[in-house]
Amino acid sequence: xxxxxxxxxxxxxxxxxxxxxxxxxxxxxxxxxxxxxxxxxxxxxxxxxxxxxxxxxxxxxxxxxxxxxxxxxxxxxxxxxxxxxxxxxxxxxxxxxxxxxxxxxxxxxxxxxxxxxxxxxxxxxxxxxxxxxxxxxxxxxxxxxxxxxxxxxxxxxxxxxx
Length: 162
Hints:
Elements: E1 6-14, E2 20-25, E3 38-39, H1 51-63, E4 66-78, E5 88-99, E6 105-106, E7 109-115, H2 128-136, E8 143-146, E9 149-150, E10 153-154, E11 158-160
Parallel strand pairs: 1-5, 4-8
Antiparallel strand pairs: 1-2, 2-3, 2-7, 4-5, 6-7, 8-11, 9-10
């Protein structure tokens, strides 16, 4: 059977001093798979757009700002992650320069600037604790990971950087 994941982006917007990251606290919809968790910004790629355009669109839709500079930090394959066991393939970006003032909230929750040193203290998917250090480390090489999920729980984690 061919592998047909949902293709998506996940972006982490850095403050101008690079000490804080804009996170969404998913607290607006009771039916949200992510309810109560903090996450980066992003979503599904649409037909006719490339992955960078997808990231720019999602940042604009969710935070009301325009990306001026961003770097691909890695890719993540999440087999079985979706609400009904769907597979996801994510492209992870850091946005290090933007134009505008971020919104306070959107239809999914509250937007909050979080100190990078406090990031791992937030309630988040257990798998995020494995890949987030790679997003913000000083290694210029992108990482490529696989993190299978089953029944809403991470089963394993592996990544490479070449």
